């Protein structure tokens, strides 16, 4: 049997398709050894020459940029020599490049003349043609076939002895015009007529039915490719034919293996180690043999392979072409391929349906005869992602695309078309609208209108995301949300589970062997579709896999699923919708997996991330089978291990296939699909792959690449109607209450009414393919919306609506609830379901948020500000967050709770439904930004009218990312337990408006470069001070700037006194930051970015984030007071300096000159430290002091040359080195006599009580964090912490040449070629001392000075030594059991749910002890950031969760202090005195 293959896609070398693949058709033919000697024939005919019957390749030249019109004529190279040893083929294949390649290896029948004239492929004009099979009785009917030909077709016959050549001429004969390029439907009709003509003439000539015709034709004009698989007798088996599709065709990158194979082949062929000296290209393709694979990185195919046997090793990639069907591969816009299946015989209505679909698909590109060009559709690039600006399209989609003539009945919606078909109207000019447009007159269907991108007014545009999640290594193809969790599936075959509250991955689910096409949540279970399987995951601890259902076989992979009412609906490359009944225990939460002694769930790796898990033997649940082998190159190895296969396993069929034909092997490896409970009628099924499914009301809706949406009756899958209107593939569906949305390659979203199945609205705005749709709905309770009462009432209808918000996908049922998410009567979801919002993701790089009431676009999210926009592959939405999956594996999140609240208000008739202004920023932040400088496009705007705020029900607390839970362990989310509380869908985490304002304000604050150490940033620092000043004024504070030192940055003072009888709390912070000159920043350090829940930027944790957290804590308390809640429990004073990172110049003077602002201060709160670890909150109760000093050694009067004067005098730098070396030993013990005197013992006791067993600190983790091999101090965690926190230290932090005065001259301290020959006249060493309670700084300075003078005297050096003290900062300590410390503990425990750790710090904060002395009030150090926040370093960050919860902790602390003051006033005679007794 002949072998053939065809490639259609981006330009590649011919060698990558024909010669180099390890499963190329050349290698397949060689390995098959099918030719045998036939002794009955003469020697020259019967000799079994292996592959001696010839071969051929054909290709279309790629479009050239230097040619005005591409050459449409293909090229052919044929030979009658064996392909496996043809040097000319090897040379050509490595040099030729094309986007359409044919290859054929012939096996001639006995007696057939063999010449290059009848070698495949054949070429005439713009067409390439090849054939695998035989025309039965060809010699008997040849003259009759030739008689059918026109003169032009007759002259195209290249060999009258070849049935294939005559068949090609018949095809040409059935074309209307041989000199123009025809659309795919015309080419398909020609190939159908060709096969029909052969069959008719065989019947007329009396060819016996037992003589079987095998007509596997492949034909292409450079733009369209058609391959047939036909057998004339249905009782016989057709010749094998497969196709595979993907986004790219790639070589496996296995450098080591390729190199090894190369060397081995070279030795075998030439007896030498390498290829050096080998002439030409002989054997080079052979030695470069490797595996190739198809990549899947987008929703659509750019590559299609047609082959008689698979030419890549992944069996799951290949789809068997059904018998007596044709595969039609045509190009859509942007290099995307569309693959449709068409019957070659049978009912005329089905063939007309295929032609109608082809017309809708192919004419989105437009056919302009010769202008289109045969090679015009080929791409000039090899990559799978192609971004193009709006309105600019490849493949010649110009504005002059001719309009399509259509029957008048198709313009009228239902009109006079088929009773089972609905057409929503044609797109004007038959092309793709690239901008919002409006239908008029006959241009739109009846009852259909096109809404512009912005509805009644322009939609707001947002650039960049609020947060991003990283973790996938491939494109994120599917998303699903429920109960504060996000599930994402990617082309890396993994499913990741994310906490939306914490913006972090909490689990990774593995098991699939292909891209995750679709995720669906139903009945408390997650369903995932990938390759041939649908897996069912339990949404419980560890997310174990409960079942793996094989729902596809060689007919194609799964691309879409939908589930409801206990039924699973599946669609994919088979073009059919199938239905499977799911066991009730898979959906109702009663399933209990078997747990082994090792803690694994039925073979699944612990944590639910294994390949599979099987249910208990007694449960009627589908057993999770082992994944079948997918590598065709390993088929031989499988045959050798028959005894190890269990009966009935997925590989059981391989036993039967071992030693059989390759077709049987492939079928056995892929396995058989489970028998469905229902399947769609093939006569009404789609013509192309099913891309999306949605269940709505009594119907199942399916979208396909054939441009239609088809409607089936749920359960039975009885065909109802085909919905038409899209031009090109339909890629996305969303089913909401009463409506179904569809989107596709025509850039349009169509809104279909479920009851009448007509198109209600067409939405424009996107400028490229609609890749994903999602939505969120609410349940409107009965009886009447007019009976709304206060939204704050827990029993009000509004509260019920808010509680009934449905997440993406089906709502979760309670463990004892009904199937499919149906709610019991009286539940919050009982009543009328109404769509609230829906979201669309597009290849134009935008995500659009739409109102479901009036279909207006509320907001447009752009992923980039400039440059090409990457396509958005998938999207999802909750009541507060919009999510988008990207091709680079990123997940982008936008917080849209303001849009949800506005849409809910519009739904209830409380406001208009048009686009609203952003709530982000609020009045205060807007005023602060205005004061900071000219507004920019990212400045927050004042809020619109008051709207309902979506609050988080208490039942969802289990789904929050608590980070810390009971016993210090994180809370584990349980969707089932959360749903069981209300018996309804639980909304995802809702972020209040002020928290959004806080984040927006911090973003603007980070943008102000308040670097106090840089004189050039003085104006920026002043802008930062004004920002805070206006922000404090916006919340009602009396505020001012204090600048006692002219060249220093001002101190911001603010005071809010509501009741003089209440206690006053002073908050200290600083708005200046360190420079950001370090290498390794992920992002612009002065442009805040969010990734995986962390906010990156200079100042996020030190100290702008905590400063704003305190401001917004106060603001929330003030708003709660206005709403009737808790009023401000304390008076507040803000003290924010701008020189903390630069010596605090002028700070003390500013405080002393404004002491009246601090009258009545009872407590100073400082948040400028960090947690000891990553999980548990902390309170700092002690810090070391710091002494900064320098020691200088001076020698000669000037620098001297080392060549002329070296070795003749005592050098200052050598003296300094010896003195510094005498300060500490190799174990960091300080050698200064008396240095350890007065160190207070047992300072670590309070910290150790809670640190032990917390797992927040470890020696190994600390060493890894420092990047050192070993530590000099600490044989245990206790010893190490004692050395860091409770013992003094001495560090040499810098050594420089030159005098102290010269150190300020940066140009003096330089390196260069001359520096190595200069002996400095002086050298300065800088020393940092950290000292602890109860040491005295002045005494330590005296001891150190005496020691260094002593050591210097021992050197007997003529040089001089001097010591200079630069600064002294006192140590600070607070009693761990003081009243204020206990209040802080309660505030933290209320927010985090765990008892906080008590820690000390080795660093120094002189301001704590200074403020205690100046204000006479104790200080409380309340850290917000984690140990990994990197203050002063590259990639400084703070976790969003820490920032927001830190704000809440401040609120709790103010309430605690206010409550304690009230209780103290109620006790007669109790004195008002500081409660801390700090030292």
Give the arrangement of secondary structure elements.
Blueprint: E1 3-13, H1 15-18, H2 25-32, H3 43-46, E2 55-59, E3 75-79, H4 87-95, E4 97-105, E5 122-124, E6 127-134, H5 138-147, H6 151-155, H7 163-173, H8 184-205, E7 214-220, E8 225-229, E9 242-246, E10 248-251, H9 255-270, H10 284-287, E11 292-295, E12 303-307, E13 318-320, E14 325-331, E15 337-343, H11 348-362, E16 421-423, E17 450-451, E18 460-463, E19 467-469, E20 476-482, E21 485-490, E22 495-499, E23 504-509, E24 516-522, E25 525-530, E26 533-538, E27 545-550, E28 558-564, E29 567-572, E30 578-581, H12 584-587, H13 635-639, H14 652-657, H15 662-670, E31 678-679, E32 690-696, E33 699-704, E34 709-713, E35 719-724, E36 730-736, E37 739-744, E38 749-753, E39 759-763, E40 770-780, H16 797-803, E41 832-842, E42 846-851, E43 857-862, E44 874-877, E45 881-885, E46 891-895, H17 897-907, H18 922-932, H19 975-982, H20 993-1007, H21 1018-1034, E47 1038-1042, E48 1051-1056, E49 1064-1070, E50 1089-1091, E51 1094-1096, H22 1104-1122, E52 1131-1137, H23 1147-1153, E53 1161-1166, E54 1178-1183, E55 1185-1194, E56 1200-1201, H24 1202-1205, ...
Parallel strand pairs: 16-35, 17-39, 18-43, 49-52, 49-53, 53-63, 54-62
Antiparallel strand pairs: 1-4, 1-12, 2-3, 2-4, 5-6, 6-7, 7-8, 8-14, 9-12, 9-13, 10-11, 14-15, 19-46, 20-21, 21-22, 22-23, 24-25, 25-26, 26-27, 28-29, 29-30, 30-31, 32-33, 33-34, 34-35, 36-37, 37-38, 38-39, 40-41, 41-42, 42-43, 44-45, 45-46, 47-48, 48-52, 50-51, 51-64, 54-61, 55-59, 55-60, ...
Helix pairs in contact: 5-7, 5-8, 7-8, 8-11, 18-20, 18-21, 20-22, 22-32, 30-32
């Amino acid at each position: 049997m002949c072998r053939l293959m065809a490639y259609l896609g981006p330009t590649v070398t011919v060698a990558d398709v024909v010669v180099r693949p390890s499963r190329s058709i050349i290698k397949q033919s060689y390995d098959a050894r099918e030719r045998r000697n036939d002794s009955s024939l003469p020697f020259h005919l019967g000799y079994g020459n292996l592959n001696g019957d010839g071969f051929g390749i054909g290709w279309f030249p790629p479009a050239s940029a230097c040619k005005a019109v591409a050459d449409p004529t293909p090229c052919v190279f044929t030979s009658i020599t064996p392909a496996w040893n043809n040097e000319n083929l090897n040379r050509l294949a490595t040099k030729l490049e094309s986007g359409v390649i044919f290859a054929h290896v012939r096996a001639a029948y006995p007696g057939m003349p063999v010449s290059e004239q009848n070698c495949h492929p054949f070429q005439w004009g713009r067409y390439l043609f090849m054939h695998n099979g035989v025309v039965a009785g060809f010699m008997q009917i040849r003259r009759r076939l030739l008689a059918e030909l026109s003169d032009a077709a007759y002259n195209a016959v290249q060999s009258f002895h070849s049935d294939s050549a005559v068949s090609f001429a018949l095809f040409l004969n059935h074309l209307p015009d041989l000199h123009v390029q025809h659309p795919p439907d015309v080419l398909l009709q020609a190939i159908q007529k060709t096969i029909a003509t052969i069959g008719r003439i065989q019947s007329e000539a009396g060819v016996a039915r037992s003589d079987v015709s095998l007509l596997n034709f492949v034909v292409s004009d450079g733009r369209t490719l058609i391959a047939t698989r036909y057998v004339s007798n249905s009782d016989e088996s057709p010749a094998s034919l497969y196709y595979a599709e993907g986004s790219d065709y790639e070589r496996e990158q296995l450098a080591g293996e390729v190199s090894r194979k190369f060397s081995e082949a070279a030795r075998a062929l030439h007896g030498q180690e390498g290829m050096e000296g080998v002439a030409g290209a002989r054997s080079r393709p052979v030695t470069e043999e490797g595996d190739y694979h198809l990549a899947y990185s987008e929703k659509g195919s750019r590559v299609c392979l047609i082959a008689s046997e698979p030419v890549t090793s992944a069996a799951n990639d290949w789809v068997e072409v059904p018998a007596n069907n044709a595969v039609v591969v045509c190009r859509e816009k942007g290099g995307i391929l569309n693959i449709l299946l068409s019957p070659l015989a049978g009912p005329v209505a089905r063939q007309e349906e295929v032609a109608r679909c082809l017309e809708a698909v192919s004419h989105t590109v437009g056919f302009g005869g010769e202008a289109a060009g045969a090679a015009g559709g080929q791409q000039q690039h090899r990559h799978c992602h192609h971004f193009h600006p709006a309105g600019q399209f490849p493949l010649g989609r110009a504005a002059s695309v001719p309009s399509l003539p259509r029957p008048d009945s198709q313009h009228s919606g239902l009109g006079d078309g088929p009773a089972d078909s609905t057409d929503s109207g044609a797109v004007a000019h038959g092309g793709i609208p690239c901008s919002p447009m409006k239908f008029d007159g006959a241009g739109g269907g009846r009852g259909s209108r096109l809404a512009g991108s912005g509805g009644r007014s322009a939609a707001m545009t947002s650039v960049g995301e609020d947060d991003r999640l990283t973790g996938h290594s491939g494109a994120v193809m599917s998303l699903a949300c429920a109960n504060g969790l996000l599930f994402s599936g990617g082309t890396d075959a993994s499913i990741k589970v994310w906490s939306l509250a914490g913006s972090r991955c909490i689990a990774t689910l593995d098991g699939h062997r292909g891209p995750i096409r679709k995720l669906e949540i139903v009945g408390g279970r997650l369903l995932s579709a990938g390759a041939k399987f649908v897996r069912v995951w339990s949404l419980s601890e560890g997310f174990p896999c409960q079942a793996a259902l094989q729902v596809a076989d060689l007919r194609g992979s799964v691309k879409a699923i939908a589930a409801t009412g206990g039924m699973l609906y599946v669609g994919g490359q088979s073009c059919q919708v199938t239905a499977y009944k799911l066991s009730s225990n898979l959906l109702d939460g009663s399933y209990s997996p078997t747990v082994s002694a090792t803690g694994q769930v039925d073979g699944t790796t612990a944590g639910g991330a294994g390949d599979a898990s099987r249910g208990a033997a007694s449960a009627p649940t589908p057993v999770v089978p082992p994944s079948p082998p997918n590598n065709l190159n390993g088929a031989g190895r499988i045959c050798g291990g028959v005894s190890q296969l269990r009966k009935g396993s997925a590989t059981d069929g391989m036993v039967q296939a071992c030693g059989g034909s390759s077709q049987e092997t492939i079928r056995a490896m892929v396995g058989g699909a489970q028998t469905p409970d229902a399947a769609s009628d093939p006569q009404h099924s789609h013509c192309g792959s099913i891309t999306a499914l949605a269940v709505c009301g009594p119907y199942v809706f399916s979208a396909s690449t054939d441009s239609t949406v088809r409607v089936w009756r749920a359960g039975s899958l009885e065909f109802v109607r085909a919905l038409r209107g899209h031009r090109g593939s339909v890629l996305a569906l969303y089913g909401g209450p009463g409506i179904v949305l569809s989107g596709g390659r025509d850039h349009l979203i169509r809104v279909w009414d479920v009851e009448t199945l007509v198109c209600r609205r067409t939405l424009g705005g996107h400028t490229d393919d609609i890749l994903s749709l999602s939505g969120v709905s609410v349940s409107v309770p009965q009886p009447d919306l007019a009976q709304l009462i206060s939204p704050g009432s827990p029993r009000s209808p509004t509260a019920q609506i808010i509680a009934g918000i449905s997440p993406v996908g089906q709502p979760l049922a309670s463990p004892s609830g009904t199937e499919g998410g149906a709610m019991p009567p009286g539940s919050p979801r009982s009543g009328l379901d109404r769509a609230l919002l829906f979201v669309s993701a597009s290849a134009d790089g935008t995500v659009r948020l739409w109102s479901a009431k009036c279909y207006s676009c509320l907001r447009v999210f752009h992923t980039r500000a400039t440059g090409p926009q990457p396509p958005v592959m998938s999207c999802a939405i909750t009541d507060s967050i919009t999510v988008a999956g990207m091709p680079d594996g990123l997940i982008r999140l936008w917080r849209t709770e303001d849009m949800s609240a506005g849409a809910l208000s519009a739904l209830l008739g409380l406001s208009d439904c048009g686009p609203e202004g952003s709530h982000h920023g609020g009045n205060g932040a807007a005023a602060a930004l205005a004061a900071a400088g000219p507004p920019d496009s990212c400045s927050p705007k004042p809020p619109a009218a008051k709207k309902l705020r979506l609050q988080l029900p208490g039942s969802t607390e289990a789904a929050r990312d608590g980070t810390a839970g009971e016993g210090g362990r994180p809370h584990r989310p349980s969707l089932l337990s959360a749903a069981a509380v209300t018996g309804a869908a639980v909304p995802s985490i809702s972020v209040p408006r002020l928290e959004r304002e806080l984040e927006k304000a911090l973003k603007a604050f980070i943008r102000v470069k308040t670097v106090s150490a840089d004189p050039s940033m003085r104006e920026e620092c002043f802008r930062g001070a004004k920002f805070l000043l206006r922000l404090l004024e916006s919340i009602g504070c009396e505020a001012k700037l204090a600048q006692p030192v002219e060249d220093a940055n001002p101190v911001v003072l603010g005071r809010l006194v509501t009741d003089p009888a209440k206690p006053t709390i002073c908050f200290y912070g600083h708005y200046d930051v360190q420079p950001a000159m370090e290498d390794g920043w992920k992002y612009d350090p002065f442009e805040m970015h969010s990734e995986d829940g962390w906010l990156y930027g200079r100042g996020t944790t030190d100290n702008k984030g905590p400063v704003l957290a305190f401001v917004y804590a106060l603001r929330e308390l003030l708003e709660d007071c206005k709403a009737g809640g808790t009023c401000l429990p304390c008076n507040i004073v803000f003290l924010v300096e701008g020189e903390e990172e630069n010596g605090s110049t002028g700070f003390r003077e500013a405080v002393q000159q404004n002491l009246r602002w601090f009258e009545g201060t009872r407590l100073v709160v400082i948040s400028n430290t960090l947690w000891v670890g990553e999980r548990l909150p902390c309170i700092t109760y002690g810090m070391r002091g710091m002494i900064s000093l320098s020691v200088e050694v001076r020698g000669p009067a000037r620098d001297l040359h080392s060549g002329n004067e070296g070795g003749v005098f005592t050098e200052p730098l050598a003296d300094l080195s010896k003195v510094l070396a005498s300060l500490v030993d190799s174990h960091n013990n300080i050698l200064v006599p008396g240095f350890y005197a007065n160190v207070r013992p047992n300072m670590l006791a309070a910290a150790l009580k809670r640190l032990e067993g917390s797992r927040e600190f470890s020696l190994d983790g600390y060493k890894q964090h420092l990047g050192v091999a070993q530590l000099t101090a600490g044989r245990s965690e206790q010893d190490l912490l004692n050395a860091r926190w409770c013992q003094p230290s001495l560090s040499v932090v810098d050594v420089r040449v030159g005098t102290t005065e010269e150190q300020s001259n940066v140009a003096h301290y330089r390196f260069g070629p001359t520096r190595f020959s200069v002996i400095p006249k002086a050298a300065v060493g800088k020393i940092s001392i950290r000292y602890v309670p109860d040491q005295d700084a002045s005494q330590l300075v005296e001891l150190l000075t005496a020691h260094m003078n002593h050591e210097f005297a021992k050197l007997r050096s003529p040089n001089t030594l001097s010591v200079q003290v630069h600064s002294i900062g006192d140590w600070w300590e607070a009693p761990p059991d003081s009243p204020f410390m206990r209040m802080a503990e309660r505030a933290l425990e209320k927010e985090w749910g765990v008892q906080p750790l008590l820690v000390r710090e080795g660093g120094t904060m002189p301001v704590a002890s200074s403020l205690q002395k100046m204000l006479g009030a104790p200080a409380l150090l309340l850290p917000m950031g984690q140990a990994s926040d990197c203050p002063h370093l590259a990639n400084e960050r703070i976790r969003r969760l820490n920032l927001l919860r830190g704000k809440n902790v401040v609120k709790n602390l103010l309430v605690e202090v206010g409550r304690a003051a009230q209780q103290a006033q109620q006790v007669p005679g109790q004195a008002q005195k500081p409660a801390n007794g700090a030292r």
